[in-house]
Each structure stands twice: as C-alpha cells, then as structure tokens.
Amino acid sequence: MSKKVLDFGIDKALNILGILPENAGTSTGEEQFSNGSVIRSLSPVDGQLIAKVKTTTKADYDVVMETATSAFKIWRKIPAPQRGEIVRQFADKLREKKEALGKLVSYEMGKSYQEGLGEVQEMIDICDFAVGLSRQLHGLTMHSERPGHRMYEQYHPLGVVGIISAFNFPVAVWAWNTALAWVCGDVCVWKPSEKTPLCGIACHNIAAQVFAENNLPEGISCLINGDAKVGAFMTKDTRIPLISATGSTKMGKTVAQEVAARLGKSLLELGGNNAIIVTPDADVKMTVIGAVFGAVGTAGQRCTSTRRLIIHESVYDKIIAAVVEAYKQLRIGNPLDENNHVGPIIDTDAVKMYTKALKQVVKEGGHVLVEGGVISGEGFESACYVKPAIVAVEPHFKMVQQETFAPILYVMKYRGDVENALDIQNSVAQGLSSAIMTNNLREAERFLSVEGSDCGIANVNIGTSGAEIGGAFGGEKETGGGRESGSDAWKVYMRRQTNTINYTTELPLAQGIKFDID
Ligand code: NAD
C-alpha cells in the first residue's frame, strides 16, 4: 500500500471494522463459503488490492436463507419499540466507528473522506429516524357500516427482505433499507456491490456485534457476496417477499421481471439523468455552486449527479463562463487528501465508458467546452482518474438521453418560456432528480405544478444532488418508481391487514343477503 494511504490509517480502519485483509469471509464463516470464487477488492484510489472476498455459492445461500427465516420467527415477536432500541444501539456503534467506516468507504469506493464520513452520518440519521418510527407504525381505524362492528387496519412485517445495492453508496443505501426493515420486524439479506464488498463486511460485523450483545440471532442481518448471479438467487427466491434493488436501469429491468414473475414486490432505485433548469432570473452564484457540486461531486457518480444544464439563451453565455471558470479551480487527486475536490471513478471499465461517451457525443455534434481525458503521472496512483468535462449539446443527442456514470456535464439552451425548458427536461427516459434556479415565483411554481417536473425529486434553488433522509427518496419512469428512506416509505416493508370485529350476537350478511339456517 502507498505511503499516503498508510498514513491515512486504512490498516487501522480495517482492524477496527474486524476485517482481516488476508481472510475476508462472509456472514456465517469462511469454511461454509469455501467453494465460491473470489472477488478482489481493488482500491480506485491507488489501484492496490485491499482484500479478497469469497463469493456465495447456491448451497451457502440456502444456509443463509435458513438462518434468516428462523431469525424472523424470533424478531417479529419482539415489540417494535424494542426493535427500535436495537437500532438505537446500532446507531451508537456507528458513531463509535464512524471514522474507520468513513475511511473504508473512501478507500474502497474512491469518494472523498469527507463524503465517506457523510455517508456514515446518513446511516446514523436514518437509524435515528427509524427509532422514532418504531413507535409510529400505525394503521387507521374506520367506522364500520355494520352496527356493533369495529374495523381497523394494521401493519405486520413481511419476512425476509432482500437488499441489492450499488457501489456508489456502499453503506448508506443498505442502512436506508435495513434500519426501516428492522423496526418493521423484517430480517434482511444483503448483497452489496461486488465492487465494494469490504464495506458490506464492515457493516455486517457492526450489526452482528449488536445482535450478539443482545442475545438476538445473527440471522436478523445476513450478508451474501458476489455479482449478478448471486443477486439472482434472491430475485428468484419465493421465500423473499420484497427485493429492494439499487443500481442501473439495466439491472432494474431484469430484477423487476424476475420478481414480478413470482408475484413478489420490488422496490427499485435506478439510474437518473438529472437536470438543472437555469432561468433568466437565476442567482448566478447559487447556480454555479449547485451545478458544479452536482456535476463533479463524487466524481459524477451519484444517482442524483447533475448531468444536464438547461439554460435560457439570454443568460447562457454568462452562466457558461462562470461554470467554466469554476472548473478551472477544481483539484483532482487522491480523495483521502482533503484539498482535492474530485477523486477517481470506480474502475477502468468506468473509465472506458467515460471515454466512449465523450467520443460519441462529439461525433454527434457536441462542442467541448471543458476538455476531459484520463489523467496519469505523479499523484495519480491508479488508472481511474479522469478530468470533469463540459460539452455543449442539443437536447435530442443520443448520448444526452443516457446516464453516463462519470463527471460529464451536458449544457444546452432553451428559448422562450420555462415550459420549453420543462419539455427538454422531461424528454428523457429517467425521472430521478430535477432542479430549477430562479427567483421568479411563477416559474418556480410552474416547475412544481402538475405540468412541471416529472421527477421524484424537484428542487427550487438547490441542485439535483443529494437528499435529506426525512423525505421519501426515489424517482419515476426508468428510475423505477421506488421510494425509500423517510416519510411513509416504511409501508413497503410491511403487509397491510384490514380487521373487522363483530361484537354483537348477530351476523348480518353483506348486500342484504339472507341465508337462513336453524
Ligand atoms: P449495477 O446495476 O451494475 O449494480 C448494482 C447492483 O445490482 C450490484 O450489487 C450488482 O451485483 C447487482 N446486479 C446487477 N445485475 C443484477 C441482476 N440481473 N440480478 C441481481 N442483481 C444484479 O449498478 P452500479 O454500477 O453498482 O451503480 C451505478 C448505478 O446505480 C447508476 O445507474 C446509478 O444511477 C444507480 N443508483 C441509483 C440510486 C437511486 O437511488 N436511484 C442510488 C445509487 C445508485
């Protein structure tokens, strides 16, 4: 490992998180996983091998499912507020290990250390939310139309929830799902991204410690490792009533069909193609901050990253000049060094996709305003560092319709009213995050109206990137329609039951039907 990384203490972080690089196992012990192939976890920061992780075989998976299914029988009987107490203890453990886990997130995924810490904080926040929620899993009481009857609805846990997550939020997305699922009385089986398996093991170890300290079965939180094939064990498994899958639209289309074929439920959080509309009344400084952070933060690898800037022609030159100037000040380099703004992208396949997208958009007629390219040489210890690029385009270009998971910002003009900008914004297949920069109340309300943004997230004078845990998170169209995290997203992790109790000595039949028997 490089000196810089050792200085940063990644070895110490792994140690605190209970990961022995020589011997990274999975949830129920390495010996049970000895037939699986191996994932090599390489850091995009410096290209070093961090650890090897064994993948889960079908036989191993069945053992995990038995463990989870029997844990559910115990967990579902524990009152929800007591389950909340376990989640509170889990959040406390995260607070203790925040620095170590934040370091691992940064080193294994490549986002800045600050963002790594931010991700762990999101886990803590959703746990706090779930603790409160554990006393509020309530249904409604209705008036029955029949005398002497009481009618109400209640929510019961679903069972085993399968979680499939993406590399870019290697720990937070699991926590958004699992903290809610746990207080709802479900147990979880998690398959993290094969690109960030150590983050999965670290979280699993923290959770396992809490369950052990409370004499609760470890199966409440299970971990499996591997790629799409291992994910498919879960999507095809009728023992799993809900699959929550986060990742590309391509993955979501397969998962949705497999889960639907067995009439299971799926919660899909898929790709975005997020735009900021910049109107003539926009605050230039706020627009530049929102656009630049949105486009280059996490090296353009957030589902909510800003991919498109749709700028009114009257302010186009002014906004472009300011954004291009801001790009000149970006420092690209090791994300563990807090002076850098932009770290590496996840791997060399992602670099190839970035390079191909830039070539393709130029071929379509795109005009490069800030040149991209792969960076090598001193200070760039892996082949995963690329320059954030800006390309002027026409909205209909093929590449502009797609999500390229890298720091490429497409800029385009709109003319006339904000309706024209909305037509461009809504013309893509994805519907995750959107924003408008304006000080004009009419434009802002129009953007938020029924004829406005068709996305799951619509912000005014805030960029597209990121979201607070208190709101329901997710998007429409090819983003998959799922909602997780705050608001009433918990309902997807439970089954609703309507109960009617007759406390009379009569049994009136519906629709006035008489059914006389002595
Ligand atoms: P990916 O689709 O390559 O992989 C995501 C996960 O799905 C991985 O764990 C992978 O092993 C698994 N998987 C892939 N195919 C599968 C299949 N057929 N069956 C079962 N599991 C399968 O995505 P990625 O490259 O890790 O992440 C980037 C993508 O995720 C981007 O498109 C991004 O927008 C999206 N994302 C969306 C959200 C959101 O909340 N909407 C959040 C984060 C990331």
How would you summarize this macromolecular structure in one to three sentences?
By secondary structure, the chain is of the alpha/beta class. The protein has 16 helices and 21 strands.
List keywords for this structure.
518 residues, alpha/beta, Aldehyde Dehydrogenase, Chain A, domain 1, Aldehyde Dehydrogenase, Chain A, domain 2, 2 domains, seven-stranded mixed β-sheet, five-stranded parallel β-sheet, 16 helices, 37% helix, disordered N terminus, binds nicotinamide-adenine-dinucleotide, Aldehyde dehydrogenase family protein
Give structural notes.
The longest helix has 21 residues, at 113-133. The strands form 6 sheets. A 7-stranded mixed beta sheet has the order 12-13-14-11-10-16-17, with helices on both faces. The model is unreliable at 1-6 and 25-34 (pLDDT under 50). It contains 16 helices and 21 strands. α2 (10-16) crosses α5, α4 packs antiparallel against α6 (113-133) and α4 (80-96) runs antiparallel to α7. β13, α14 (398-401) and β14 (408-414) form a beta-alpha-beta unit. It folds into 2 domains: 3-270 and 480-496, Aldehyde Dehydrogenase, Chain A, domain 1 (3-Layer(aba) Sandwich), CATH 3.40.605; 274-472, Aldehyde Dehydrogenase, Chain A, domain 2 (3-Layer(aba) Sandwich). It starts with a helix and ends in a 16-residue tail after the last strand. By secondary structure, the protein is an alpha/beta fold. The chain has helices at 3-8, 10-16, 58-75, 80-96, 98-109, 113-133, 172-184, 197-213, 228-235, 249-261, 284-296, 316-328, 348-363, 398-401, 418-425, 441-448; strands at residues 38-42, 49-54, 141-142, 149-157, 160-164, 187-191, 221-223, 242-246, 265-269, 274-278, 306-312, 367-370, 389-392, 408-414, 430-431, 433-437, 457-460, 472-473, 476-477, 484-485, 494-502. It binds nicotinamide-adenine-dinucleotide (NAD). Nicotinamide-adenine-dinucleotide (NAD) binds at residues 164-169, 191, 193-194, 227-228, 231-232, 235, 246-248, 251, 254-255, 269-272, 303, 403, 405, 432, 475, 479. This is Aldehyde dehydrogenase family protein.
